[in-house]
């Protein structure tokens, strides 16, 4: 997976540069890139754009026709670049990298918070405040429940994971006893 993100990063950085200069704004570009990524993830679209009977221009038009959002010249040029380099199917990874760049630029970070039990709004707010202090960025939480954690929470912010779940503690104890 790291290899795909390494390939996707330069495309995301180039697109981010275009998006920053565009009057539409980063949010509009992030939504468009997310829509492109979703389309590129669909099995029917993947097989259609990989079909050798289509030339590059036809692939761009075919892919553009799957999107609800009308494409600007810059977006079409980006699609054409991806098609020419055989990277169109990397759009989900490019979208992920683009979102990371956007969040970093805006001083934000997504936090995946997984709890063993449903958290009250006040608990989430308290946890987010602590995370914002620790990481020095505005946190956008995505909260979910996973009963297999038994108790506690697991928080992922970017590539950093804070796991205070009972499941993680039991796993650490097991590893210590086995070693």
UniProtKB/TrEMBL annotation:
Keywords: ATP synthesis, Cell membrane, CF(1), Hydrogen ion transport, Ion transport, Membrane, Transport. It is a peripheral membrane protein. SUPFAM superfamilies: N-terminal domain of the delta subunit of the F1F0-ATP synthase. It is found in: Cell membrane; Membrane. GO terms for cellular component: plasma membrane; proton-transporting ATP synthase complex. F(1)F(0) ATP synthase produces ATP from ADP in the presence of a proton or sodium gradient. F-type ATPases consist of two structural domains, F(1) containing the extramembraneous catalytic core and F(0) containing the membrane proton channel, linked together by a central stalk and a peripheral stalk. During catalysis, ATP synthesis in the catalytic domain of F(1) is coupled via a rotary mechanism of the central stalk subunits to proton translocation. This is ATP synthase subunit delta. It comes from Pigmentiphaga litoralis. The lineage of its organism: Bacteria, Pseudomonadati, Pseudomonadota, Betaproteobacteria, Burkholderiales.
